Amino acid sequence: MTLAQLPGFVAGTWDIDPVHSDVGFTVRHMVVSKVKGRFDGVSGEIVTTEDPTAASVRVAIDLNTINTYNEQRDGHLRSADFFEVETYPELTYTATGVRADGDEYVLDGELSLKGVTKTVPLRFELNGFGPDPYGGTRVGFSGTTEINRRDFGVNFEGVQNGIAVVGDKISIHIELEAVLRQG
């Protein structure tokens, strides 16, 4: 696998554009539905290389920016029951190297949340490279993964009428756009 064979490929260091990126999640609520949310504070960099095994990603998410479109729930998620943002204000994901898995790409990165770091594979699609109207160059990626919240010390035990309020499995979906760093 060589990324350099992709149309418009550009090797370089890319800064994540937080205005055009989205990091969201879905979790079961009361067994019967799913709640979606997102983090509005995402930053980091992506390094593309002609040798995919030398590529890297560093993403930081400000957990204070959680947004589930419900202020009361967002406040609860920031509390010690969930993210404990006073002590652990950031989630990070760091990966070095890309591997092919069939027609997909996978990053085997380290996800850190609440003082716990675990390897989490992230399946992603390279959406493409292209110029922007400001004289720069952009790249886009879409990615998905799943984690178990309890693996990261998010152990809230809410139960109502014998039903778990929050599921353990968290589906994460990512849309990243990044700008090629100049000079």
Automatic annotation (TrEMBL):
Organism for this UniProt entry: Actinokineospora diospyrosa
Record-linked InterPro entries: Lipid/polyisoprenoid-bd_YceI, TTHA0802/YceI-like_sf
Name under which the protein is recorded: Polyisoprenoid-binding protein YceI
Sequence ranges assigned to domain Lipid/polyisoprenoid-binding YceI-like in this UniProt record: 13-179
Regions crossing the membrane: none
Pfam families, A to Z: YceI
Family in the record: Belongs to the UPF0312 family.
Domain of life: Bacteria
